[in-house]
């Protein structure tokens, strides 16, 4: 199992910012698309943002214009910059790494999650 370790969660007031990080050790050669998902209590896990192998990004409508996904030059760390946070952003945030096609694809790796709590 390839570990993905998220960090950066915490408690902030509405309007504040947080930056989440996800370190994908051991998957550098086989790392494909990278994504952030979130799951609020009592709700299903939902897509937040993705950066694909070519560097193209996509966002859920609910976070577009407020969140920015990026990765470092070595592509070992994935980030999610979250600005103008709202109470409805409160959730456990998960990092997901897809196994690259040249390594066989067809497998996703998930981190343990980092909690984000936004108070009004």
Q: From N to C, what is the helix and strand string?
A: EEEEEEEEEEE
Unreliable parts = none
Give the proportion of residues in helices.
Answer: under 10%
Measured by DSSP, the beta-strand proportion falls in: over 45%
Radius of gyration: 14 Å
Report what the structure shows.
By secondary structure, the chain is an all-beta fold. The chain contains no helices and 11 strands. It has strands at 4-7, 10-13, 18-24, 31-39, 46-51, 57-59, 67-71, 77-82, 91-99, 108-110, 114-119. Strands 2, 4, 5, 6, 9, 10 and 11 form a 7-stranded mixed beta sheet that branches. A 4-stranded antiparallel beta sheet has the order 1-3-8-7, with no helix packed on it. It is elongated and about 45 Å long. The model has no long low-confidence stretch (mean pLDDT 93).
Task: Produce a short descriptive summary.
This protein is mainly beta and 120 residues long. It is built from no helices and eleven strands.
Secondary-structure topology with pairs:
Layout: E1 4-7, E2 10-13, E3 18-24, E4 31-39, E5 46-51, E6 57-59, E7 67-71, E8 77-82, E9 91-99, E10 108-110, E11 114-119
Parallel strand pairs: 2-11
Antiparallel strand pairs: 1-3, 3-8, 4-5, 4-9, 5-6, 7-8, 9-10, 9-11
Provide tags for this entry.
7-stranded mixed sheet; single chain; 120 residues; mainly beta
């Amino acid at each position: 199992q390839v570990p993905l370790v998220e960090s950066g969660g915490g408690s902030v007031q509405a309007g504040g910012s947080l930056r989440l990080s996800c370190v994908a050790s051991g998957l550098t050669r086989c790392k494909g698309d990278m994504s952030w998902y979130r799951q609020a209590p009592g709700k299903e896990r939902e897509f937040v943002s993705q950066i694909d192998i070519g560097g193209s990004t996509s966002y859920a409508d609910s976070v577009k214009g407020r969140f920015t996904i990026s990765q470092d030059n070595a592509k070992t760390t994935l980030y999610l910059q979250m600005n103008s946070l709202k109470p409805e952003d409160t959730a456990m945030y998960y990092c997901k790494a897809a196994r690259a096609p040249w390594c066989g694809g067809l497998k996703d790796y998930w981190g343990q999650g980092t909690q984000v709590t936004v108070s009004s």
